[in-house]
Amino acid sequence: MSIPQIVGIPVDPADNDPVFVRWTQIEGSALAATIGYPVLPVYTNRPDFFQQRRYWQYFPNGMILCDFYTCAHVLYGPILDYYGTINQFNSDLGFPTTDVTQLPDGTSFVAFEHGVLWLDQQGAIHNLDYLAPIVVKAFSGVMPTPDGIAAFAQTKINTMIAQTIQNDPQLSSNVASAVATVAFETTSDGHCLGASFDTVGHTLPRAHIFRVHLEISLQGCASIFGNATADFHITVRLRPTFPSVSAFMESYTIDSVSTPGGIGQGDLTAGLSNALSAQFGVDMIGAKPPAGAIALDVIVDYPGNAYIYQEPMCMSSAMLQRSAQPEAEATLAQVRRLRDEHLAQTAHGKELIQIIETFGPVVTEAVRREDDVSSLRDGIARFLVSNFGKDANLSKISHTISGPGKRAVSLLNHIANDGKKDEVHHILRRCVRFLREEIPEDRDLETLCKSLSQLLEQEQERIAKNK
Q: What is the pTM for the complete model shown?
């Protein structure tokens, strides 16, 4: 497929623009062989306004492009073909923030400024939806909103300060405790990190800038005239670190440290500076997602909301494609029709689809790790063929699964809002046990849904009890 060409102002070859630099990096490589030798000039749109400048170049089988906030990335294949049909960088997706990236399962993706395109194993392109905030919180404990991220940062900073006081004799002799209050202030722009003639850069999302106020309770002689305060700013940037998302402090600025009469002010300032400096390179989230969950990208908008994109996987597809069931493909087509023509038509159905697509890869991976994986997969595949085969009444199935579907959405909200750290792992173990015990060959869908509703209700009651 030949994509339309957007013509701009040719760039002087001596300018060493980012696209030319990227071509220099890959020249002679397999990637260069894939896209071919450039036959058109590098174009730009605004040679006068540096921060609004874009660069792009077409190749026989590919494209390299960037703007002021992204590195120069390489596109080719079906993802570039699709990108061409939606007006390329003038589309809602904007500029790419990764190259075409191959995943271990044979799929691939490209992250953009405003979304992610994913190429599945069948060759279809999907413009992915981001994970609902409540799903992200259930997995990570962090609500991906400005206030949610600020609350998470506040917990981390208070833990850091407490540990610093305990481990620093000079501080512990004068400071009894310190409590931080963190507020989101603004975001800074994304940028290209580390690109040069020798190194392929990384496009980073916008960073969060937080204002931190510290109330410090003094002890001993230092406390006679009152307590101390400190104010500082920190810049934290979320980054995709395959297969998860991490958060790193990039910089800090101590605005003020105030003590009664200035006593010990230098020591407090030095202690705070040392504590903050020690956080460089430390992942503030520090938690891996459950096995099977693969985070592809994180996008931060100007207001500070974070959007996480995960590789989707249909659990039914994974089970059926590994089975010897003669009706596997027809059943899989029915499952897709159920999703697209029935569930996706209602708000509740869309919530259920996202839960299934989020937890499906995790459950699939958990099943793969079981000793009886072959019999488990075969049992699930037989159940699917029996209940979702070519003659299945999809409208009736949609109604039947609505009960446990609503229970699943409610349980997810309880996990996110009231659950403890390992709830997702506990639910995962229960899911595998349920699949082993509740899906014999002759089990019908209605009976299974009743059992599943009971299980989900029990789990919700357990979480509420242990709150």
A: 0.86
